[in-house]
């Protein structure tokens, strides 16, 4: 497929994508989780990446770490406040091709009603026509945020002097998008 054929509107496929996070627990181990996609679209412009855009809405109530008690706590006001802020959103403001298969997507990430500008390095992982004759593109990447920048300040001090949950959270993205137009 010629790169110019990639230009178009895409829907991110939630069944084949992951919006994940990693946090340090008790300063000794990592806890990984994911938040399901409520809606996610992208416009890709192969000839002019700056004309591309991304819009993502994640469903906070669906957060999953593999532990029901922890998931329930993450939904409370101590952390993500799913009742008051049911969505996490990202809206791009700029897309740059930085070389090869690497891009930087800058935009506004909103968590708990607090918006901060972040830049996410993404790597293009390929294009395929699937068994339903749909054009799919893939991207992956990660970035680090400070949860306190979004008003998530809950923590507990450990006897050893550390804290229960790290301030720095790694956001991970494994994206499969289907061309719709």
Automatic annotation (TrEMBL):
Which SMART domains does the record match to this protein? YceI
Superkingdom to which the source organism belongs: Bacteria
Q: Which InterPro entries match?
A: Lipid/polyisoprenoid-bd_YceI (IPR007372), TTHA0802/YceI-like_sf (IPR036761)
Residue ranges of domain Lipid/polyisoprenoid-binding YceI-like in the record: 9-178
| UniProt xrefs under Gene3D superfamilies | Lipid/polyisoprenoid-binding, YceI-like (2.40.128.110)
- A Pfam family that the UniProt record links to this protein: YceI
Q: Tell me the PANTHER family matching this sequence.
A: PROTEIN YCEI
Annotated family: Belongs to the UPF0312 family.
By what name is this protein known? YceI family protein
What does UniProt list as this organism's lineage? Bacteria, Bacillati, Actinomycetota, Actinomycetes, Streptosporangiales
């Amino acid at each position: 497929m010629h790169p110019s054929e990639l230009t178009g509107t895409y829907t991110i496929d939630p069944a084949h994508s992951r919006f994940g996070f990693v946090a340090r627990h008790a300063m000794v181990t990592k806890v990984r989780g994911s938040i399901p996609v409520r809606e996610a679209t992208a416009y890709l412009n192969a000839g002019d990446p700056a004309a591309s855009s991304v819009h993502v809405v994640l469903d906070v109530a669906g957060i999953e770490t593999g532990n029901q008690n922890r998931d329930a706590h993450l939904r409370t006001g101590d952390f993500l406040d799913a009742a008051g802020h049911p969505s996490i959103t990202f809206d791009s403001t700029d897309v740059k091709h930085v070389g090869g298969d690497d891009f930087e997507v800058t935009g506004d990430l909103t968590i708990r009603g607090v918006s901060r500008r972040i830049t996410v390095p993404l790597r293009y992982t390929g294009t395929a026509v699937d068994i339903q004759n749909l054009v799919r593109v893939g991207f992956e990447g990660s970035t680090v945020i400070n949860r306190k920048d979004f008003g998530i300040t809950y923590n507990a001090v450990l006897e050893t002097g550390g804290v229960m949950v790290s301030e720095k959270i790694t956001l991970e993205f494994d994206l499969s998008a289907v061309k719709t137009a």
